[in-house]
Amino acid sequence: MDKISLEAAPLLGGASLELSGNRIVERDDLAIVSIATPLGGEEALAEALRNGWSLDVPKPTRSSLSGEVRAVRTAPDQMMLIFPHATPDAEAVVQERLGGTGYTTDQTDGWIVLEVAGPDTLSAMERICPLDLPSFEIGDTGRTVMEHMGAMTVRTGDDAFLLLSASSSAASFLHAVETSYRYVT
Amino acid sequence: MIINHPLLGPRDAAEFVVLGDACLIDRPDGMNSASEEMHDYAYVRDNPAGEHRELWYHEQGDRSWLVVTRSTLTHDVIKVELARDVARARGRSR
Amino acid sequence: MRYSALRILKEGLTGNRGWQPVWREPEPKPEYDIVIIGGGGHGLSTAYYLAKEFGERSVAVLEKGWLGSGNIGRNTTIIRSNYLLEGNQPFYEFSLKLWEGLEQDFNYNAMVSQRGILNLCHSDPQRDAFVRRGNAMRLSGADAMVLGPDEIRRMCPYLDHENARFPITGALWQPRGGTVRHDAVAWGYARGADQRGVDIIQNCEVTGIDIKDGRCLGVETAKGPIKAKKVAMCAAGSSSRVAALAGMRLPIESHVLQAFVSEGLKPVLPGVITFGAGHFYVSQSDKGGLVFGGDIDGYNTYAQRGNLPVVEDVCEGGMAIMPMIGRARLLRMWGGVMDMSMDGSPFIDKTHVEGLYLNAGWCYGGFKATPASGYCYAHLLATGQPHETARSFRLDRFRQGAMIDEKGVGAQPNLH
Amino acid sequence: MTQAMRIDGGMVDRSRTLSFSWNGRWMTGYHGDTLASALLANGERLVGRSFKYHRPRGIFTSGSEEPNALVQLREGAAQEPNTRATTIELFEGLNATSQNHRGTLAFDLMAANDLLSPFLSAGFYYKTFMWPKAFWEKLYEPLIRASAGLGRLPMQPDPDVYDHGFLHCDLLVIGAGPAGLSAALAAARSGLRVILADEDFVPGGRLNAETHEVDEQSGADWAAAVTAELAGNGNVRLMTRTTVYGAFDHGIYGALERRTDHLADAEDRPRQVLWRIYSRRALLAAGATERSIAFGNNDRPGIMLAGAVRAYVNRFGVAPGRNIAVFTNNDDGLRTAEDLSGKGIGISAVVDTRQGNTVVDTIGRGGIRAIRLGDGRRVEADCLAVSGGWSPNVHLTCHHRGRPVWNADVVGFVPGGELPPGMSVAGAANGTMSLAAAIREGHGAAVGIAEDLGAERPPGTPAKAADESFAAAPFWQVTGLRKRAWVDLQNDVTTKDIRQSHQEGFRSVEHLKRYTTLGMATDQGRTANVLGLALMAESAGKSIEETGTTIFRPPYTPVAIGAFAGRARGKHFRPHRLTPSHKWAEENGADFMEAGMWLRAQWFKRPGEKGWRDSVDREASRVRKSVGICDVTTLGKIDIQGRDAAEFLNRVYANAFLKLPIGKVRYGLMLREDGICYDDGTTARLSESHFVMTTTTANAVLVFRNLEFARQCLWPDLDVHLISTTDGWAQFAVAGPNSRALLSKVVDDLDLSNDAFPFMACAECSVFGGTPARLFRISFSGELAYEIAVPARYGDSMIRALMKAGEEFDAVPYGTEALGVLRIEKGHVAGNEITGQTTARMLGLGGMLSRSKDAIGLKLSGREAMNEDDGMRLAGFRPVDRSVILTAGAHFLNPGDPADMAHDQGWMTSVAYSPELGTSVGLGFLKRGTDRIGETIRAYSPVRDQDVLVEVCSPHHVDPDGVRQRG
Could you give the ipTM of this predicted complex? Predict the structure, then answer.
């Protein structure tokens, strides 16, 4: 038998759409690792985060950014690190810097990440997102439900957001986002 | 409805799942309680017409369980707490 | 006054001046043999059968508002007996049989309309469950058929057979299911009970239940104390509040079920259709409105109103299964407060207080049960023994572990 | 160019002529017209038929309260029944037809009902149609049904799209009339985020219909100027064609925006958008609705509310008649007469009840020709403008079940004390009837709200207008009539019906409504309710306060069901979840099934296979003989970490988990607190503090929720953390005697021998030269089997690689059907058995329940009715005649017993054709089933026309000793 090796495939084939000056791009270059805070270990984890990435533990509803590494608060005792990373060893990379101060789980494959940007973005998002996105500061984040799908959003610019949703329904999620743009442009 | 999440601020109730009376926190120890006690815990409710403390789960949010004090007559939300804090305050630990 | 076509003719020719009040407006007497708390459908039917079938002559129904203002006045009018479990099925079949002879029995046209009820399914396990249920219905003497996709397509060509997210793979069909003009049920029972001497006392809220030495002696009301040999609680939606007057806590939570009606349309749907996967059920009233609903809102409430997520969820289900209703307009939405019990099934039982009885916990199935609930409650009140079809509706069944849980979701009322 | 009734002035754009079709005839109108104004301009007076008596009816109002002029709009699948002509904005090519008649509109055969009206009084149907019994459903009801209803639904899918949306604001102003505009302006100037919504396509409300002046310009010009300022303010969202239809909890309002209804072609954009508006405050400025007076034959075409007459004259430049009479109980009558004479329209009479004058009858067949006065005089008139006073539009104040209160000064119900929290009311909706006062009240309300919310005080003062007189004297009905007088025009409720209702004891307002159908029509009695209540009060000899009122429910005006549904339709009703091997499965002939949100491959059809059974038999056989591969990604996966993770698991599983060794998997049973089984699965221990749990596909979300409940609410100080990894791992079952051989080619550097990696072992490893993976030796088929998981991004590559590696074993992919066959053959329980109604003991798993610990559900699992010795037990079944195919859902009966519920012995839960055994096999629950192996009983399935004898056997049809899976 020929030597077989497995190849990673982006969920949406690396989708990149342009809709009347707005863009929807699948970010398949990002790794996502969740970090849970051990009971009573808040300080140690915060320090490891500072030392490892110069990151503060983000407040609820906020994300913090250091270089290309973004920490997003997802639960009272959990956050996610999102950063460019190609190989399937992101958890190990994170854990190495954490040194056991947090419980890590690789979430890269659990999420579809879409980057949306353009002048009609807020109009498009108000069709599917119940959060008050116009009031979001850059870096604000929220998790909610869009068109029956759990979704997380981070404001990354005046008219740009990262949108995350479950990877198994990536196609449905893209359809929802794309339809919103089509309806408002 | 809007649930004013203690950490996240006001959120549409559609993000939550409701379980019921917050007395479900007070689970008797199965080894050291009478069957009657477990029966009442599982089945009997005050079901008040007025202020009701109840458990809401932020399933489409930060997955916190909350104790929401709400009027069953007007739906006014009077107080929202993290259920974990309430559980600890009621003496639950490990 | 007996109603008939001849009477209509006579009155029509004389300016409709001779119609008599359908019920009296009596003041309460100081004492009755049986006092029923709650002038909704079940309370009125209980009074009717107590008088008619069990010869009780001293019965009062106390209603805090106007008679028929309970869930009999705010439901989606469906009757059926398509239950699965041994504790339920014979009772609901008994009820359906009473519906079938009701109008002639109480001389009032409640428009019992057996147009059939179709429960759609979308997977093999669901179809297996329907086969089991259909067989259980047949074993109890009810009618049931399991239909395949082609039969459903012929019967309901307007359903979304082509583009559905959940393709229809089959259905449980009960031809004898249908709908009834709900208010007329209350009025017919009230009229029948009143004619047989039952005092129906409106605007008479019960404010206390007199209990001494474990025995119920009567009630306190807005119109003064009333003594009674037996007091029958029958106030679904408010059961916990009424039972609290007797110091009881019940295995019940109060929840709101919303219902909806569209503007009047020429006939569209022949019978009742339920789309479980989409939380949607619908029928069309004789006046032409599509009457539809779905799941309960899910939070405890005594407010007779609901919120938007369920409204949207229900309409999504409707559009998914019958996309031709998109341009029909929703005319009104309303909410009924339900006694949601811990296993989704009701109670018709004595309580620990002698002379105090409970009829409660109907979840959102109370309307179809109206005749049998009244009959069986009357049986219990008059004879002291449960009616054979209502033996399982015991208040202590959770202590025994004898739940009657049709949905299999356990002690969580908002899931039933 | 006819438009014979068109007059000068108004806000229509005469440079834009629009053609439209009414009952097949083409006419013209102008941009800015409604269908109603265009019909009136063309002299059309008869536009519809009433519900019950099929009386001829004309346009009665100029707004959304219209009871009569309901039409069928557009054609084909886009037909929209019951659409109010008074709200349809005219567009080029509009096509509308009248409804609810047999024959033509002018000669409706059903009009015979009107002759029978003495016999069709309130509630007549409750008193007859009962004999003979069988006739109700066969004859009477179909007749009633066919004649009831108004418009027709096209029985085709709605061709338009709809959307939802979410908006947030500080202040929602409902209604852009004088009070609303004034409020929005003040709030905008104070810097609040404002949404101003109005159902009309031009803001201004009554300002556009009247001849009032505001700030020394015409009211309409002032409205336009304010609108322009608001439109230029970035904090303001001005939403015309938007009806706020409901007030929900905590400041949430529902609004319907009609985006393309006024266009000939929607160009695939949503027809309507249903907004959920989150507001901190709301101001209801919804104005008031005029009502009629009950007098003889007050329903003929040409009889119109006085305010509507002014709207058609002033706003639309249309004369509703050439010779108009006015009948009024308030100052509106005089105002109408002034406006009409200003336009040079003839006025034949002004009949004011305050001067003791009345109209007792009207004359004319298809429309009014003359009126008869109380003194017997006949006055010619082709239009009668009626005003019985104005009712504040309090509807939204009632949506939280608040009750309006009677205000004798305005002769109407005004908002009661209990408003939805955050709502205030201004202008006519609040009973503030004069223009100047409404503007001041709107402004004042906004200033107060701005202050409340901590915004700055807006500059400027409210606009100035004259405080015109508003004097009304209650006058409800002309008494001593010989002719019928209508109260509810659409539902044909007359004053006699209301009297009869009282006579028969239907005396509470709710009984009145339900018995007579007053206010139950599509207009929710907007022009009728107050009149009806007043008449009821008169019948009862009570005041209106004592009689009370019914309350209003959402929606304010009817909303298309399609709009409530939004986009969630057809394939997009709910999201699809796809497995990592979905694409590959599509390429390989898979047939998919719905499993919750998931699509799963049921079987893979190969060339030459005729039916699904061929495919499934082949797949199941290949697994038993060699090896098969199945995507099991849909199983819920939960990462559980923490110092107390083992302790935690031990409390949520009914069986012991505390001492599960690292590198091992254990089957676990989960109970609800009521002791009933609700899920099963496996949990693997990867390290001291790290476990991976699997759940069933169906219960993944529920189990996660319950675990979070246990973690946060029951044992908040256990160090345990949960995260769902269901989507993150592509997981494949590799099952069959050759599975080890196959995986040996796949897994890097792991000894898979039985000793090194025995049954129920697990390991983190890598595959195909370095891709990280997890391997579990678990079996759902009874064969030697594994589940191998790789990060989902490799799922597609992995299935292809596995199939390639399996070629030498003739490995097959297998779907959920074969999976079912294998598990039924092996006697493994699944969803058909774990129904949420079954106990561990019933499932044959009673021995797993730990007696030495507390875990959820253990205590209540011991209750007596759940532990009866003659209870249901899981057993296996085979047909005595081996060629019979069994039916799931069949009930069991002892041979010779009657087929009734009293003799029910249980039911068949799952069946499959076993290629291994060459016969149909089943699982099921049978009373004392475990003790009855070898018995023959009946499997009775009347709904499947089946009644067969089956043999009771062990549920483990294949390899009962479990040799294969351990081999």
Answer: 0.97
